[in-house]
Amino acid sequence: MSYYLVTGGAGFIGSHLVEELLKLNKKVIIIDDLSMGKKENIPEHENVTFIKGDISDSEFVTDIFMRYQFEKIYHLGAIASVAASVETPLVTHKTNLDATLYLLEGAKKQGILKRFIFASSAAVFGDEPTLPKTETSDIKPLSPYAIDKYASEQYVLTYNRLYNLPTTAVRFFNVFGSRQNPSSPYSGVVSILTDKFLELEKNHQVEFTLYGDGEQTRDFIYVKDVVSALVLVGESEKAIGEVFNVGTGNSISLNELISLYEKLTGLKLHIKREDERAGDIKYSYSDITKIKGIGFQSLYNMEKGLTEYWNEETKRKE
Ligand code: UD2
Question: Which residues are in the NAD-dependent epimerase/dehydratase domain (predicted)?
């Protein structure tokens, strides 16, 4: 029997992907050390096997490949924190780069893999100002996190060129949706805003810290669009050996996002203004011509994604 492996499958994006793979009748193995992911994110389903473990432990990864045969690997597991990578680069490097190599080696030796999909990040572009970002735009990784993402994606693509392993890399822009953890100041801004609006709904006094003038823009993509992109690149033969941007191709400013959220919830957010955050980029959005070329369509604009996210969160908190 062969499985789909999802590293980081208990995390924000990974758990949404697992739900979709189950709908597609796949047998899924999740590896997650639960450092950022949560057990309750894992669907209870006969086709899911959860293994708690650390992908930066090479013996653990070798043992997994001895026990299971993999048809496809979605490698989403990472220490997804730029701040953590700046504080402890040696630690994050093991998870964000070494682990990628352990998985690639395991897959290469097993020799039956149909696809290895790696989740990279728009962080690889850094603050290089040319917009929109295409897959061939200049790379300027500015943190250990971005360097490890870039190095990993290049290893992944090189394993295709050198060893004919069928690999694909995707660069996520700003993903949002349920189960994204809002607890750190460096969490995704949409999850932080959602948390604030949920507090406001309970009549609690809260304020949102807005860094800079609010005119910074981002290409926010709803997690369900990201899942469709992951399934699509995992199935398309044309995606082998390629890297794809995963965004919507549109962007919205923080000011516009806040107004939209206020309109949606009927609540007024109190805003505390602070200086622009060091290292922040001003504008970002993706060119998604390449992934559209293999059939991708973003089905959620900001309003639709935010509405679904808000409805899910309010239902959950009832
Ligand atoms: C994203 C990634 C980050 C790194 C970076 C590379 C996420 C969550 N973060 O950061 O890991 O890869 O891209 O470019 O995907 N903001 C506020 N108040 C808050 C929180 C944020 O004003 O409480 C601002 C923040 O200063 C920024 C914007 O909102 O201008 C978006 O922040 P973000 O952390 O969600 O995303 P980004 O693109 O800066």
Answer: 5-247
pLDDT tens across 186-232, in order? Answer: 799 999 999 999 999 999 999 999 999 999 999 999 999 999 999 99
Mean pLDDT taken over the chain: 96
Pairing of strands 69-75, 115-121: parallel
Protein residue with its CA nearest to atom 20 in ligand 1:
189
How many C-beta atoms lie closer than 10 Å to residue 139's C-beta? 15
Nearest in space to 95 (alpha carbons), one of 80, 79, 108: 79
253 CA from centroid of ligand 1 (Å)? 12
Q: Is the CB of 34 under 6 A from ligand 1?
A: no
Q: Which atom of ligand 1 is least distant from the CA of 121? A: 12
Atom of ligand 1 nearest to the CA of 218: 38
Q: Give the phi and the psi of residue 258 in degrees, each rounded to 5.
A: -65, -45
**Which one, of 119, 148, 179, 176, lies nearest residue 316 by Cα?**
179
In angstroms, rounded to a whole number, what is the distance separating the alpha carbons of residues 306 and 189? 12
pTM for the predicted model, two decimal places: 0.97
Could you check whether the bond before residue 132 is cis, i.e. omega within 30 degrees of 0?
Answer: yes
Ligand 1, closest atom to CA 254?
29
Q: Determine which residue's CA is closest to atom 27 belonging to ligand 1.
A: 280
Which residues are 18's β-sheet partners?
none
Tokens representing 191 are 């999850």
Our answer on whether the CB atom of 189 is closer than 6 Å to any ligand 1 atom is yes
**Contact in structure between 166 and 113 (CB atoms under 8 Å):** yes
Residues marked as catalytic: 145
Beta bridge partners of 3: 70
Helix (H, G, I), strand (E, B) or coil at 6: strand
The dihedral built from the CA positions of residue 117, 123, 124 and 128, taken in this order, carries a sign that is positive
What is the secondary structure of 195-236 as a DSSP string? Answer: HHHHHHHTT---EEEEETTS--EE-EEEHHHHHHHHHHHHH-
Domains of the chain: 2-174+221-246 (3.40.50.720), 175-219+250-285+299-317 (3.90.25.10)
